[in-house]
Amino acid sequence: MLSKVENGNAFPSLTTLHALSRVFRVPMTFFFETHQETQGCCYVKKDGGLFIESRGSKVGHQYQLLGHGVGKELSVSPYMIELNDTSEVFPLFQHPGVEFIHMLGGEMVYEHGGKPHRLSPGDSLFFEGTTAHGPVELIELPIRFLSIIVEPGPKDGS
């Protein structure tokens, strides 16, 4: 039956579509979407990201939000973070979801779950955000790194 539906030789009832949506774990509307639908896109020109005040801003950390996407299941926030000679190390923090860090310049020791990682340009770190983490030693300034935080989306689907 599924092959007939895929090839346009049979037309499923709503009951069949509902059963298929449960099996494939997709909303029923999935079967009515076109492949040409435009998905969300966020374009930010160089130096055009939104500068965010965050807990680290109080100790000289600069957070530049490079885009933001909130879906039904995920919230994605990419940041360019810069630490300079006015920056300080501050207490470790936690957040839901996962985080990916990619070093662009400078050098630092970044701790996750009590384990230090010495990061230099080109190094990456991917970790659970619920475990305490953060920079614990600023070795070579200025430090620039890309941080992408992926968290569960809103519970109400908005």
Automatic annotation (TrEMBL):
Key words, A-Z: DNA-binding
A GO cellular component annotation in the UniProt record: cytosol
Q: Which GO molecular function entries does the Swiss-Prot or TrEMBL record give?
A: DNA binding; DNA-binding transcription factor activity
Where the record annotates domain HTH cro/C1-type, the positions are: 1-31
Q: Does the keyword DNA-binding apply?
A: yes
Q: Which PROSITE patterns match?
A: HTH_CROC1
Against PANTHER family, the record matches this protein to: HTH-TYPE TRANSCRIPTIONAL REGULATOR (PTHR46797), METHYLPHOSPHONATE SYNTHASE (PTHR46797:SF1)
Name the UniProt record assigns to this protein? HTH cro/C1-type domain-containing protein
Q: Which organism is it from?
A: Methyloceanibacter stevinii
